[in-house]
Amino acid sequence: MPSTGGCFIIPADHVNEGATVDTPLIIGLTGGIGSGKSAAAERFASQHGIHVVDADIKSRVVVEPGRPALGQIVDRFGQAVLQADGQLDRAALRQRVFAEPAERQWLEQLLHPLIRDEIVTDLHSAQSPYALLVSPLLVESGQHRLTRRVLVIDVPQALQISRTLARDGVPEAQVRAILQAQASREERLRHAHDVIVNDRDLATLHAGVDRLHQYYLSLREGAKP
Fold first, then answer.
1. At the topology level of CATH, where does 6-220 sit?
2. Which residues belong to the annotated binding site for ATP?
3. Contact between 160 and 32 (Cβ < 8 Å)
4. Which positions make up the signal peptide (predicted)?
5. Which of 53, 72, 200, 223 is deepest in the core (most CB within 10 A)?
């Protein structure tokens, strides 16, 4: 795989033929922390009018006050994972589960099916030529099975760390723990149909998105890659 900035399309025989959602074309967009996947998704939405489903947003919906999942989380971890207003303290929960792999596994088994249901409902409402499912855990959660193609926003790990430290102001040890919990760069690339290497500027990222948008339109229209 090339290691400098650019956009790469992998031959179409790698398409997920087992996709389970009956919509014309769903693209899964993923990348590790600090990769720039949110900036890529924003370009698809704002410049090209593509319907974007954000798994991170869905993960917040399923733990809103009054939702059964929040009660189960509090029963397991205690009131310390709640804010004063009753909302989930995601930072406190993240710190707890990333320190204890068994607890992270329990949380994922609880939340992933609920998040998937929210995602599928939203994908079914898409009116754009194709839809985009954005998820940092697209591979790990099995959400890639909902898609026809996987787009990976790829960056070297050192750049992921430096970007995240600058953006979030968290300890480096916490960033490395998150990286360890996510799929490796190599694993994401094994699932990729399309890759944007985002190690340059925003204009380069946008150019890659714009090129892929045209390619996805050609797939939607039945043209050969």
1. Rossmann fold (3.40.50)
2. 34-39
3. yes
4. none
5. 53
